[in-house]
Queue: 3 jobs
Job 1
Amino acid sequence: MYIPFENLPEESKIWIYQCNRKFSDEEVHQIENDLMTFVTDWSAHGTGLEASFVVKYNRFIILAVNQEVQMATGCSIDSSVAFIQSLEQKFSVDLLDKMNVTYKQGEHITHKTLTDFKRMAKEKAVSENTIVFNNLVNTVGEWHEYWEVPAIESWHSRFF
């Protein structure tokens, strides 16, 4: 069952998928339509999940479930991953590779491999103050507070 993202409790579970490239506005529109269809029918053991999504910066897909109503289970999480894989195929993108870093360069968003980001940190091309996207946050509340943070305040800090 779809619920507007802003109406989800802060404790709602989230999953963040970052794209290896920026989606066009037309692609975002198609993705949002596909997400609405998926989330509306998403269930765990036959019980509908109170769920939502948001697409940010034409690069990130955030899925969320209010686990106070119904917990996401292994099968429901598997179905969400299969859905994300279908988006990867449909748009010829990578959404599941966790060995990449996305960060801000001024107003621009840049996507690099973890190896490249480590090298850039060593070369001082990025700094502790570089705004990174910490995709390891687990809840809507954490997402609001700790998703876009200086590298020194996230797991990226180990590179400095």
Note: Residues 74-91 form the longest helix (18 residues).
Job 2
Amino acid sequence: MTIDDEEWAHVVRAVSRLLGWIYTLSWSASFYPQPRLNWKRRSTQGLAIDFPLLNVLGFVCYSISTCCFWFSPTIRQQYAARHPASPEPTVQLNDVAFGVHAVILVTVTYSQFFSRLWRFPNPSLQRATRPVLGILWGSIVGVAGITLVVVFRSGWKDQDPLDWAWIDVLYTLGYVKLIATFVKYIPQAFFNYKRKSTEGWSIWQILFDLTGGVLSVAQLVLDASFGGDWSGITGNPLKLGLANISMAFDVVFITQHFILYRGQDDVSTTPDDEDDSQRPLLSQ
């Protein structure tokens, strides 16, 4: 490698780290507007309970996965064995920081539906819907099942990376996160459509989220292209899929807020609508 190549490598790594920390800050910032809005309004009305519940599920899985890819020598060795052309996982330290921070904030948001904790007047009576509870418990059972397969097929140690291994458990956690990310937006988008309003749903979280998604994909593409092997992207389907799904729904919410329901900020307060807003969003 020539001196010019070394300098270029330093520049690319520096840009990648910069993109990583900026998107981490942007995504991290996206978790604050909603709980702040709930606190300011002293109400969770306008927020579908399925959204924060699936956020808790998804980000717990995401945090476990990224922490293992960053800290575990065993997982990193298994990844290198499966991706010899690009042996370094594309998970960065900022991914770890983002995941741990996200778990804390989404748990706070979900907890705001419990009036005994926050003492909100006229709290929302929403309950998680059966389909979402099915996803929650199905995910737990699925991860536990894959863990048992790995243990019985390969044992606890000295696993063949090309056979069932711990990395497969992490990939399963990643797919749970993808499912949770995709599903969590649907009840909220339908809730906004049903009320013809986005009041109670913070648009700032969406703007921060969209910015983070764009920069996340940019970092992933930069890292993979610099490594000379695009398997760096396919080797991290969680990060790529998460960003693309989030950005697609962000566009939907931006359209709802700024175009479809612009100026229609009042949540209906008629008796029928109040009763209806407390019902689950998906049929039981």
Note: Residues 110 and 173 are 21 Å apart (CA to CA).
Job 3
Amino acid sequence: MFTKMEYQGTTNEQYDLLIKQLNALLDGEKDLIANLSNASSLLNQFLVNINWVGFYLFKEGGLVLGPFQGLPACIRIPMGKGVCGTSALNRKTIVVEDVHLFPGHIACDAASNSEIVIPLIKNDELIGVLDIDSPIKNRFTNEDKEGLEKFVQALQYHI
């Protein structure tokens, strides 16, 4: 395994290598919790300047905390509330440069300043969302958005 700082390729090449590692790590395993646990761990090792990475799973009409890396987090998020609930409801990636300016932001970690949330959808069914927070404002670039969306597409094959 490598961390982003150890590999000197372009951002796109780094994400391509990360996805290859994800596929190798999850090959043959279909357990949702095991695969999401390893995916969050892999992202935590790869991404720099983040303070939380993990999943919220769609259950009982809302989002429930799933596997993650970081400080304890909010357990339940209603659909349409905060960045995660909005992303899940609209089934679209949301990149927030400054979470303090996002209407209805749910502050689980006061150190978070920016966020990206990508929905996990398989067979047109919402599985949940990938949520990544950073203590740095404007942390997530368009290259990160594209790379993380490709990561989630690869992950959806294994869940």
Note: The chain has one domain: 4-157.
